[in-house]
UniProtKB/TrEMBL annotation:
UniProt xrefs under CDD domains: GGDEF (cd01949)
Catalytic reaction annotation: 2 GTP = 3',3'-c-di-GMP + 2 diphosphate
Name this polypeptide is given: diguanylate cyclase
EC number per UniProt: 2.7.7.65
Modified residues (4-aspartylphosphate): D51
Record domain Response regulatory: where: 2-121
Principal EC category: transferase
Pfam families, alphabetized: GGDEF, Response_reg
Domain GGDEF per the UniProt entry, residue ranges: 171-311
Species annotation: Zoogloea oryzae
PANTHER family the record matches: DIGUANYLATE CYCLASE DGCM-RELATED, REGULATORY COMPONENTS OF SENSORY TRANSDUCTION SYSTEM
Keywords from the named record: Phosphoprotein
Length: 311
């Protein structure tokens, strides 16, 4: 472990620090509370062993500031053990109130300090595992299981944010709604599993298109999501109407050129996509309105023969 040892007594930090190093720990030393906060931020220790009474800033205040630093980081928590000569009940209560986790009198046998450090390290380890598991779950919760694209839930969250920002800035905004053509016939003809493969392949193409859009800066922070079933949506903040038209056309072409055999899809014989696009030069009003307009254009694309985009 990397341990931050805080004490205004040189004897304590030297002797104590040396012993910790001896048993394999890395030690960072601070002589008062203010330096403790600074070195905490600079060295990110696994555990803090801290005196209470010190010049410049005492241990209670330092603990409060360390907790304030951690409050800005999700899941951050470093055990703070007060190791002090003034082991009165009042000090114990204040130590815990200040954000400390344990309180050991300096007179305690060394074995006690070691044991308590071990207990704290155990809790910190569990917490780190939980944080990792939580991050994995969060990533999964935003993903569509079949295609690996963002799911509807994530789309709604991110879109809400993007739309709010577009409205605040009076920025342009583009949206494409996409629907696979005659996909029911695809399933009927090739089976549901082949249908799943088809959706995965189309999703991969859409992902490539959106990556290209971002790389070429045709939009700012564009992303594509599985809207539901065989429908996808592409968000295109800050794109021009020309860019929107180009992206819509490229998307339709890319899926058609992919050449996924679809014997029952009209004259093409391959899977195709219809797209409804909408562009606003200044974002305003409700998102639902934007989607209604995109849907209406998608309907027109279907009416006009599919494998095309209507804006
Ligand atoms: P249109 O060109 O008018 O969009 O016709 P369509 O057949 O694509 O539209 P329809 O809404 O009639 O059928 C959509 C089909 O998509 C029905 C549904 O079973 C299928 N589907 C939805 N989600 C999935 C999926 O995850 N996997 C598979 N294999 N099929 C799906
Ligand atoms: Mg002291
Ligand atoms: Mg549909
Ligand atoms: Mg369809
Ligand atoms: Mg339909």
């Amino acid at each position: 472990m990397r341990i931050l040892v805080v004490d205004d007594s040189r004897t304590i930090t030297t002797v104590f620090g040396a012993r910790l190093v001896e048993i394999g720990h890395e030690v960072v030393i601070a002589e008062n509370g203010q330096l403790a906060v600074e070195r905490f931020q600079a060295s990110a220790p696994d555990l803090v062993l801290m005196d209470i009474e010190m010049p410049v800033m005492n241990g209670f205040e330092a603990a409060k500031q360390i907790r304030a630093v951690e409050a800005t980081q999700e899941w951050a928590w470093t055990p703070i053990i007060f190791l002090t000569g003034s082991d009165t009940p009042e000090n114990l209560v204040m130590a815990i109130e200040a954000g400390g986790d344990d309180f050991i009198p300096k007179s305690a046998p060394e074995g006690v300090v070691q044991a308590k450090m071990k207990a704290m390290a155990r809790i910190a380890g569990l917490r780190a595992e939980l944080s990792l598991a939580n991050r994995k779950l969060e990533a999964q919760a935003s993903q569509d299981g079949l295609t690996g694209l963002f799911n509807r839930r994530y789309m709604d969250l991110r879109l809400d944010h993007q739309w709010g920002e577009a409205i605040r800035c009076g920025a342009p905004f583009g949206l494409l709604m996409m629907d696979v053509d005659n996909f029911k016939l695809f399933n009927d003809h090739y089976g549901h599993l082949a249908g799943d493969d088809c959706l995965r392949a189309i999703a991969a193409t859409l992902q490539k298109v959106v990556e290209e859009v971002n790389a070429r800066r045709l939009a700012h922070d564009a992303f594509v999501a599985r809207y539901g079933g065989e429908e996808f949506a592409m968000m295109l903040p800050r794109c021009t109407p020309e860019a929107l038209a180009e992206i819509a056309r490229v998307t339709v072409d890319a899926v058609c050129r992919q050449g996924i055999a679809h014997a029952r899809n009209a004259e093409w014989g391959v899977s195709t996509l219809s797209v409804g696009g909408v562009h606003m030069s200044r974002a305003e009003g409700a998102l639902a309105q934007l989607f209604r307009r995109a849907d209406a254009n998608l309907y027109r694309a279907k009416q006009n023969g599919r494998n095309r985009a209507e804006l």
